[in-house]
Each structure stands twice: as structure tokens, then as C-alpha cells.
Design a protein that fits this description.
Layout: E1 11-14, E2 18-26, E3 29-35, H1 45-61, H2 67-74
């Protein structure tokens, strides 16, 4: 783990396209601004873990054989 000390207005660069800037420090809270490309997902850690758990749960509940679903969707196509 890399540990850095930053003051208000200072930033951390990750690669060429992600910047994390310290915007405010008040009491025990630090407000950060994160600039990243739209294809980079940025979440609070607790939200990220909930998303992972939900994705795992959804994958476990998905039917293994999607033939019936594919056939049902195929029958909905308009025929010329």
C-alpha cells in the first residue's frame, strides 16, 4: 500500500487519465474530487462490494440452459 500525505488543492495522479484531488478537510472527513474517463467505474468501496455481491447472486440464479429463452425470443421476430 502506498501512503501519501496531501494538502487541500493537492492531487494524486494514477496513470495518465485519473486524478484524485483533495478538495476539503473538515474534522475527520476528507472530501475528494476524482477525474477519470467515463469508461472507468468509480464507486465508494461499500457500494462496489454490494454491486459485486449482487452480480454474483444474479449469476448464480441465472438459468444454465438459455435455449428456451432464445427460442421464445426467436419466435417474436417478424417474418417477411
Amino acid at each position: 500500500m502506498l501512503i501519501l500525505t496531501r494538502k487541500i488543492g493537492e492531487a494524486i495522479a494514477i496513470n495518465d487519465n485519473i486524478t484524485i484531488k483533495v478538495l476539503e478537510i473538515r474534522g475527520g472527513q476528507v472530501k475528494l474530487g476524482i477525474e477519470a474517463p467515463s469508461y472507468v467505474a468509480v464507486h465508494r468501496e461499500e457500494i462496489y462490494h454490494k454491486l459485486l455481491e449482487e452480480n454474483i447472486r444474479a449469476a448464480a440464479e441465472a438459468p444454465e440452459d438459455l435455449t428456451a429463452v432464445a427460442e421464445a425470443l426467436g419466435s417474436k421476430k417478424e417474418k417477411p
